[in-house]
Amino acid sequence: MHPDAREVLITEQQIANRVAELGRQISRDYAGREILVVGILKGAVLFLADLVRHIDVPVRLDFMAVSSYGATTDSSGVVQIIKDLEQSIEGRHVLIVEDIVDTGLTLKYLQDNLATRRPASLRICTLLDKPGRRKVPVQVDYNGFVIPDEFVVGYGLDYAERYRNLRDILVLKPEVYQK
Ligand code: IMP
Question: Which of 65, 87, 141, 142 makes an SS bond possible with 41, Cβ 3.0 to 4.6 Å?
């Protein structure tokens, strides 16, 4: 285990198994259609890379980057697009891939924003769901794991841009935040 971690919440193997399951489910649901997978930078990158390799219908990739203002642990609800999509989504089957849904403010904003661009369909896939902190309801179509209200890192998720490369999903020791 990483020295900054208090516990391993989800192991690399558990992640791999669940991501493969999600890929199979998505492939079944989208049979005969092409998916435009929209990855939300940067946290979803590792999840997306593994997920799309378990999807066996045609896939296109695009990315968005957003930032939410306010203290890092308490989203203000104001979301700004830092990087927008490179292609039109009109008439396409769009699947948003995000690392975690916490307050729900980021995904609610993205969902409302992309819906105005007239996609043929719009669904959301998240690796993690922390329902205990939800401020706005969000309909998540595919979710890997429901987790308790703990700040987690690893497998793409960061604390101050660190730990994204760790292979398990970990809960940090409290003293790491106080450094
Ligand atoms: P929301 O708008 O509150 O749902 O926040 C979503 C974003 O907050 C995610 O895309 C993450 O970047 C970040 N976030 C929320 N919880 C965690 C966590 O436990 N670890 C790392 N990042 C988190």
Answer: 65
49 CA from centroid of ligand 1 (Å): 19
The pairing of strands 59-68 and 35-41 is parallel
CATH number (1.10.8.110, 3.40.605.10, 3.40.50.2020, 3.20.20.150) of 13-148 reads 3.40.50.2020
- Cα 160 to ligand 1 centre (Å): 12
Q: Which residues line ligand 1 (CB under 6 A)?
A: 43, 68, 75, 98-107, 151-153, 157
- Domain range annotation of the chain: 13-148
DSSP characters over 80-132: EEEE--SS--TTSEEEEEEEEESSSHHHHHHHHHHHTT--SEEEEEEEEE-GG
At 57-110, the pLDDT tens digits run 999 999 999 987 654 545 566 889 999 999 999 999 999 999 999 999 999 999
Where residue 156 falls (left for φ over 0; alpha for ψ -120 to 50; beta otherwise) is left
